[in-house]
Amino acid sequence: MFARIMAVVLAVILVTTVALSAVWWFTLRNQQIDARLDYLISEAEEIAYLAGDLEGESLMDTINDRDSVTRSHLNEVAANINREFGAYIAVMDQAGNVMTNARTAYSEDPEFVESLNGDEISKAMQKILGGEKIRMRSASGEAPTFTVGVPYTRNGGVAGAVFIRTKAQRIESGLNEILGKIAVLAAAVLALSGVVVFLFVRARLKPLKQLGTAAGRIAEGDFSVRVDEKTGDREVREVSSAFNTMTRKLEGVEEGRREFVANVSHELRSPITSIRGFAEGMADGVIPAEEQPRYLRLVADESKRLSGLIDDLLALSRLEREDAKPEMSVFDINEMLRRAVIRRMNDLEGKKIDVSCEFEEDPCPVRADSDRIEQVVINLLDNAIKFTPEGGSIRLESATHDGIAEITVRDSGSGVAPEDRERIFDRFFTADRAHTAGKGTGLGLSICKRIMEMHGQGIRLLETETGAAFRFTLEKA
After folding, report:
1. Fewest CB within 10 A of the end CB: N or C in the chain?
2. Residue 213 — very low, low, confident or very high, per pLDDT cuts 50/70/90?
3. Distance CA 30, CA 111 (A)
4. Cα distance between residue 70 and residue 204, in whole Å
5. DSSP 8-state code for residue 424
């Protein structure tokens, strides 16, 4: 991943650098050409000024010493242009008289002078004599050329023309050197950018690499791994925080799974061991025949306990299936509470427990899965009976608030220790000090919680001064 990102980023930098270098090159090239052509025009204007300063009627006249000095200066300017640009220079007046440096130019570059097109020069001269300045690049002949031309005046009118032509390569000379410098600079920029991008990308990808390593360890079953939440950009820090949250939850799930397996193993082993021991004792004759009925009753009780545990496990497994959905119907929750009391009347009378019902509305119709809700009511009532001492009391309540029915089961038992309140709905939580202590499987409240979650409702342990109180909610019909 790191290599791919680096390749993409460097490719973008390379394309950008090449594009900017090309733009820079063409800009410098045009600026140099314009500067040299401006210089040629200024020299042409100098020659035009000197030619216009001659006092004779034509270029061929030489009246006094002043004209000789002017002509000498003109020749000197032309010689300088020729030395620097190898240019062909022509000065022509309106009478058609022409003064050129053809002999000097020919001695230096005969091929260039021979390639000059007379018709082309004549047409350019006509434009200049018409008062027009020219500045152009021509591709005619064996090699491209640049041409500049300016008119010169005398007595307020155009008296003649100055024509300068040079090879394009003389104007464009030195550009290859500039191109080399640009290439070196571009290479340096690319190399520096590569180093900076490498360090930048590596720093940015380091947290992602840590995440990848941590994910690999999680795949191997190590849920204790954590990543640094303080490095990287804001988005990376948020991902790292979410990742750590996930690993903490996975660690909790894994601990719960191990505890679940351990608890199931323990709960299954206990009755199976008892049944096996009693059965072997009777089969081996260790238990006398007259005592066997009592031990057979114990075997039956342990079998019943084992069957109840398996039933609870199957019930919880069915409830936790993704496709498990409640079968909704409308029923009277008060009537269901009454039936639950009647079903447990023998147990209540056996412990001389006083049972009372307080219903805010009667009847109180609700919309829910009646079989599942009856399971919740029975579980809560069984817990209340189990942990209420002899002569204690149990109260069943129903009330409504904003379209929600609240059902509460209270008892006068020992209550739930503060340290156990958060784990009261955990599977197999049957600590001796907890409200669910005893011979139960510790799955009842877990089943209740799952049933209420299926209904989109909740169940909770209320704060009470004495005893324990559980409340769950239902949608009022």
Report:
1. N
2. confident
3. 27
4. 74
5. T
Same domain membership, residue 286 and residue 229: yes
Q: Which distant-in-sequence residues (6+ apart) come within 8 Å of 233 by Cβ?
A: 204
Residue 424 CB neighbour total at 10 angstroms: 20
343 and 305 co-located in one domain: no
- For residue 313, the domain's CATH number is 1.10.287.130
Clarify whether residues 45 and 60 are in a common domain.
yes
**381 and 438 in a common domain:** yes
With CA atoms as reference, report the closest residue to 470 among 397, 401, 393, 414: 397
**Angle (nearest 5°) at CA 184 between 182 and 186:** 65
pTM of the model: 0.46
Query: Both tokens of residue 18?
Result: 């090449």
Residue 468, number of CB atoms within 10 A of its CB: 24
Nearest to 51 by CA among 166, 135, 149, 143: 149
Residue 171 lies in domain: 2-176
Q: What is the pLDDT of residues 369-401, one digit of tens each?
A: 988 898 899 889 988 998 888 889 999 999 998
* Closest CA relative to residue 394, chosen from 360, 345, 361, 439: 345
**73/458 Cα distance (integer angstroms):** 109
In a domain, 199, yes or no: no
Q: What is the CATH number of the domain that holds 133?
A: 3.30.450.20
Average pLDDT over residues 166-180: 75
Q: Say if CB 151 and CB 93 are below 8 A apart.
A: no
Interior/surface letters 256-288, b for 16+ CB within 10 angstroms, e for the rest: eeeebeebbeebeeebeebbebbeeebeeeebe
Residues 432 and 318 in one domain: no
Task: Name residues whose C-beta falls within 8 Å of residue 169's C-beta, 6 or more positions apart in sequence.
Answer: 143, 144
Q: Are 262 and 373 in the same domain? A: no
